[in-house]
């Protein structure tokens, strides 16, 4: 069907059409993608031929990569630079750009002397047609979003050593695309007209705001170590930004990377540490090293931000320059707790070797051991235990590590804590004990482990009752059976006069009701 349509479009004779069909069918490793590209290449050949009937069909591209090369071969010499920039932008972008975003990104690249966003912006009304015309089938646009035709197109474009091909004009290393995209984002975030009030800015000026605000830091993190001085100067400028410009992009950035927390007021060093921008951290330390042990308005320190985000090199730089390894405050308590929470075992090791207090209390998770236990980071739990972490350290709000791990179903960590002597019956005002919380979540393996370690099957919490009530209310009959075999008090009541049979009836768990009755549950109790 595709060949017939091509023949009609190019006004080919019957003989030429048949010859073309036969040649295509003789090709090995035919795929839909190859056929799509080959037909487009053949169409271009015939459309540009004065004698299409005599055109050699043996020039059909034998592979997808050959078809890609043919597409690039057809780019006019004076447009090669533009096409290369377009393809680099598409490859480096963290998500498909819209045509409007491309109009700004490409404008900044092609016209680096632009001082305002409006000045850099290309006409976006026809950019989709121009991109298709210049890039051929490499690019397709769907709902204003720009894509490469296939993953193989990306692989083809990323650096290939082929010194004898025109394709060399389009070869690059992936890090080159990161440098370019970092430069585009930083240039945009430094535009003079963005200093105005947001209400005064045109839609064109704001067209690249969301992308650059969200992804600039990631592109900078991935750029080459020998990036140009101009690029480094742009980075310094963004970190120095304040007033309307900073207020324009920073809230967008923060909501994208830390959506659950309020927007802080950060100094440049805190932000650079958060982003893992090593060179900028070093640069800022030479300007104002006193900020290294200063907290932001959330009481969080640069070393804590770097630890949370897993930037080990930045953590080391800060420590080498005098950062206090035990600075306490903020959401994450301290650097060690932040690293434990994020599963950053390399940073945990660095901090412990620098004398981090393993049992320091504070933050949302109490201490480092609880933080690691709450997220299932068993390797870090082991590191902390080997450093002598108090396995029974109790936090007013979150209990202890054993309760935390039991509530999340991390049986490997529960086993590690029990082997280190964790108090199996430690009680917490809000969550009860480990047996109750494991029973309420249906973690029967953990319940078995706790019972084998002597957990009090009848331990009663002021508000939530006991393990039997918890399991009965949720319908976990296997756990109910385990508790009953350990002689759980079938008629025990909580503070609100509730009990296991009542909980099972309310939940409609008939099998558990039967089990409780067989164990002597009092039917006429009123609770």
What does this entry look like structurally?
With 527 residues, the protein is mainly α. Among the domains are: 2-62, no CATH class; 77-240, no CATH class; 395-402 and 422-527, Ankyrin repeat-containing domain (Serine Threonine Protein Phosphatase 5, Tetratricopeptide repeat). It is 54% helix and 2% strand. The protein is built from 29 helices and two strands. The protein has helices at residues 2-10, 14-26, 32-47, 64-73, 80-92, 99-110, 117-120, 127-135, 151-157, 174-188, 209-222, 229-240, 243-257, 268-275, 278-287, 302-308, 312-320, 335-342, 345-353, 368-375, 378-386, 401-408, 411-419, 434-441, 444-452, 467-474, 477-485, 500-507, 510-518; strands at 139-142, 145-148. A hairpin with a 2-residue loop joins strand 1 and strand 2 (145-148). Helix 14 packs parallel to helix 16 (302-308) and helix 24 runs parallel beside helix 26 (467-474). It is globular, with a radius of gyration of 32 Å. The relative contact order is 0.04.
């Amino acid at each position: 069907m595709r060949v017939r349509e091509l023949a009609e479009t190019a006004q080919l004779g019957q003989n030429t059409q048949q010859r073309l069909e036969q040649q295509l069918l003789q090709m090995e490793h035919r795929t839909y993608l190859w056929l799509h590209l080959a037909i487009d290449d053949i169409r271009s050949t015939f459309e540009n031929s004065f004698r299409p009937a005599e055109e050699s069909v043996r020039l059909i591209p034998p592979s997808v990569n050959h078809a890609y090369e043919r597409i690039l071969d057809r780019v006019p010499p004076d447009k090669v630079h533009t096409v290369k920039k377009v393809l680099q932008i598409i490859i480096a972008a963290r998500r498909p750009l819209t045509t409007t975003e491309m109009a700004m990104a490409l404008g900044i690249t092609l016209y680096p002397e632009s001082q305002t966003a409006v000045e850099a912006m290309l006409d976006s009304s026809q950019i989709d047609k121009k991109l298709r015309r210049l890039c051929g089938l490499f690019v397709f646009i769907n709902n204003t979003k720009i894509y490469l035709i296939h993953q193989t197109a990306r692989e083809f474009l990323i650096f290939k050593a082929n010194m004898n091909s025109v394709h060399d004009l389009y070869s690059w290393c992936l890090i080159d695309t990161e440098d370019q995209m970092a430069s585009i984002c930083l240039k945009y975030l430094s535009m003079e007209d963005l200093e105005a009030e947001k209400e005064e800015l045109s839609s064109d000026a704001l067209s690249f705001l969301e992308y650059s605000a969200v992804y600039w830091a990631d592109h900078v993190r991935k750029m080459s170590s020998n990036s140009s001085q101009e690029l480094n100067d742009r980075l310094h400028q963004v970190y120095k930004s304040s007033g309307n410009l900073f207020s324009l992009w920073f809230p967008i950035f923060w909501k994208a990377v830390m959506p659950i927390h309020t927007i802080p007021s950060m100094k440049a060093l805190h932000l650079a540490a958060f982003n893992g921008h090593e060179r900028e951290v070093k640069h800022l330390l030479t300007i104002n090293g006193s900020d290294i042990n200063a907290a932001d308005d959330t009481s969080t320190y640069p070393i804590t931000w770097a630890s949370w985000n897993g930037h080990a090199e930045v953590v080391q730089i800060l420590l080498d320059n005098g950062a206090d390894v035990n600075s306490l405050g903020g959401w994450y308590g301290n650097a060690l707790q932040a690293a434990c929470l994020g599963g950053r075992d390399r940073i945990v090791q660095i901090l412990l070797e620098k004398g981090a207090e393993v049992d320091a209390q504070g933050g949302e998770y109490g201490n480092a051991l609880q933080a690691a236990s709450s997220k299932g980071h068993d390797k870090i739990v082991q590191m902390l235990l080997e450093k002598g972490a108090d396995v029974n350290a109790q936090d007013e709000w979150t209990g202890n590590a054993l309760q935390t791990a039991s509530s999340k179903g991390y049986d490997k960590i529960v086993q590690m804590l029990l082997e280190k002597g964790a108090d199996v019956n430690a009680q917490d005002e809000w969550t009860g004990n480990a047996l109750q919380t494991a029973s309420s979540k249906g973690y029967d393996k953990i319940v078995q482990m706790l019972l084998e370690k002597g957990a009090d099957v009848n331990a009663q919490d002021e508000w939530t009752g006991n393990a039997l009530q918890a399991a009965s209310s949720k319908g976990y009959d296997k756990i109910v059976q385990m508790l009953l075999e350990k002689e759980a008090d079938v008629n025990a009541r909580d503070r609100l006069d509730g009990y296991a049979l009542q909980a099972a009836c309310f939940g409609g768990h008939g099998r558990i009701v039967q089990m409780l009755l067989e164990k002597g549950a009092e039917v006429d109790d009123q609770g």
